[in-house]
Design brief:
heterodimer, A: mainly beta, 30 strands, globular, B: mainly alpha, Butyryl-CoA Dehydrogenase, subunit A, domain 3
Chain lengths: 421, 178
């Protein structure tokens, strides 16, 4: 066969595929949103810590502990970065908030808690609008949660106690030939609290905002008192205690990566600052914001890891990073290449100095950019981390690496549903 | 399929409309499955959408999407290796004079060419499809696949040789294009 006939026959063979209608762009938006929510969720959830430890310790006081038989548990400690201080003096936040509905998350885990002490994830099965509680280590579905009337769950984030989650829902919207709403005018945030056994204790509406400003990444603080949600280029931080908030607008024509938000305590938000209309805005990279500080987004935040240090292959870089609940470290997917191969790794950097502290996943080399490698969970100190890369979990424990079986919702190589851990 | 024409636009919807069919065709030719191809193409475009303000400033945003899609096909192909072998065998068994399809939900017809293509190693299949279907120069293929130009040429020659050998050995003529 000559080259030209081969070209023609190849084109003819795939013609039936190319003659199909192009999917609606909203399909892409939903996919992007689900993926981003999962990232934001895991980021906030990082913190997610061993409530089981606390429960194990308090079992003698009548608590329903989850500690494993005979296993010593660490005492619960207060998160170093979330002292019970009053919320910043902000004006009323956009939307309608119900401060009376907010309740603080339970005890946070010990600084060096192990992942097994925090087994619950909340996931959103694709296209159903409901939520499910799953044990991450056994894959068992513990409970299915229907949304409040008129809502369709679209995102989820976790606080630090492994029992408190915030669900984002679309309210209203047209649903032509689809169970999923389109162009929902309103987004709601609901607080979900689980019992020690992972069953639903309560689900309550925290507030609503116009959907055009909040159907993208979001994160909840360790004590569930503060919310941060992406607004199109910057993000809004809201105190759920008071219903007040502050809009962190982008400056210098840069943008915040929508799904890069994660909390340490209730005062520190980590985010990725990148190019927008300005391809090289000052201070690109992973930044840490003190939400109580004065000034604009860049004045109140500090660059921790510059963009070039973790992204050496712009077409292949991942944008999901996590800050440890104690605000000491950030976990970043570093991609270098291609120089014959791409090199993927997940690296811990010191928030204080920006120095590399550890590599928490074995380096992956591939002639292609490789499957997404992302950090899923960390204990408050960052000494124990669970990552996911190439279809399996990887555990980092004080410098030691080992494979770990986890059951995130998967569809092919991608996470099949938004989930929070 | 239309030949590769770079799209320069700040408007994602416009870019998506102009590029989607080319990307999904490439992926379909590599994975041999319409549904898998659509899933991968949509995933690649959704990633571009998430980063559009950045991607739009690249010289060739479609090249970025294509690279992401190629990357996704690698993993999908690994995952589907077993199923792929079964599908090819099943297709070969079902293939008759009528050239009927092995998957009633998949419009990709089983032909001697498609069977031979699916028997190629993924790396060779990628460069062959990028060269013959996307009409890309070897320099661009090297960039997309993250390999040297020499490696592209080597893989392309090997793919062409193996494909033609497979077709020669086939008892059936290559069905003509519709």
């Amino acid at each position: 066969m000559l080259d030209d006939p081969l070209r023609e026959q190849l084109a003819a063979w795939v013609h039936p595929v190319t003659s199909q209608p192009i999917p609606d762009i909203r399909v892409l938006r939903r996919r992007a949103r689900r993926r981003g929510i999962r990232r934001a969720v895991t980021a906030a959830a990082i913190a997610g810590v061993v409530a089981a430890v606390a429960i194990g310790v308090t079992a003698g006081l009548g608590g329903a502990g989850r500690s494993e038989g005979g296993r010593p548990v660490s005492p619960p400690v207060s998160p170093p970065v979330s002292p019970p201080v009053s919320p910043p003096a902000w004006p009323k936040a956009p939307g309608t908030w119900h401060p009376g509905a907010w309740r603080a998350a339970g005890p946070l885990p010990a600084a060096d808690a192990a992942p097994a002490e925090q087994p619950y994830i909340v996931m959103l099965p694709v296209g159903r609008g409901t939520a499910q509680v799953r044990n991450m280590f056994t894959g068992q579905t513990i409970a299915t949660i229907a949304p409040p009337h008129g809502q369709f769950f679209a995102g989820v984030a976790a606080a630090g106690d492994d029992r408190t989650f915030v669900l984002q829902a679309e309210v209203g919207g047209q649903t032509p030939n689809s169970p999923m709403p389109f162009n929902a005018p309103t987004a709601a945030f609901d607080e979900l609290r689980l019992t020690a056994g992972g069953e639903v204790q309560y689900l309550t509406v925290l507030g609503t905002v116009p959907a055009r400003t909040a159907l993208s990444g979001f994160a909840i603080s360790q004590d569930a008192s503060m919310l941060a949600y992406f607004t199109g280029a910057g993000f809004e931080t809201v105190s759920l205690r008071t219903g007040t908030g502050k809009h962190w607008l982008p400056v210098d024509h840069g943008v915040v990566a929508p799904y890069s938000l994660s909390w340490a305590g209730d005062r520190t938000v980590a985010f990725e600052w990148g190019s927008g209309n300005n391809p090289h805005p000052p201070g690109m990279g992973i930044r840490v914001l003190n939400v109580a500080a004065p000034g604009n987004l860049l004045q109140a935040s500090r660059l921790v890891v510059s963009y070039g240090r973790y992204c050496g292959a712009r077409a292949a870089c991942q944008d999901g990073q996590l800050i440890t609940p104690d605000a000491s470290r950030v976990l970043v997917t570093r991609v270098v290449g291609p120089d014959q191969h791409y090199t993927d790794s997940i690296v811990e950097y010191s928030v204080r100095t920006g120095r590399q502290l550890a590599q928490v996943m074995p380096t992956v080399r591939t002639p292609y950019a490789g499957p997404p490698c992302v950090p899923l969970w960390t204990n408050p100190s960052g000494q124990q981390v669970i990552s996911f890369c190439g279809g399996h979990g990887e555990r980092y424990d004080h410098g030691h690496l080992s494979r770990l079986t986890v059951h995130p919702p998967m569809y092919g190589m991608n996470f099949g549903a938004a989930f929070a851990w | 399929m239309s030949r590769y024409v770079p799209v320069q636009t700040e408007d994602f919807a416009e870019f998506y409309e102009a590029s989607y069919r080319r990307v999904v065709a490439l992926v379909a030719a590599i994975v041999g499955d319409r549904h898998q191809a659509e899933d991968i193409a949509q995933e690649a475009f959704s990633r571009a959408l998430t980063r559009w303000q950045r991607v739009a400033r690249y010289d060739l945003p479609e090249a970025w999407v294509r690279r992401v899609a190629l990357r996704l096909t690698v993993d999908a192909t690994r995952r589907m290796r077993r199923a792929r072998i079964m599908s090819v065998l099943l297709a070969a068994g079902q293939r008759g004079a009528s050239g009927r399809r092995y998957d009633p939900h998949d419009p990709l017809e089983v032909t001697a060419l498609s069977l031979a293509l699916m028997r190629l190693p993924l790396a060779q299949r990628q460069v062959l499809v990028l060269y013959y279907l996307a009409d890309l120069p070897v320099d661009d293929i090297a960039r997309d696949c993250g390999i040297s130009v020499g490696t592209v040429r080597t893989r392309l020659a090997a793919a062409r040789h193996r494909l033609y050998r497979e077709l020669r050995e086939s008892d059936e003529e290559v069905p003509h294009a519709r």
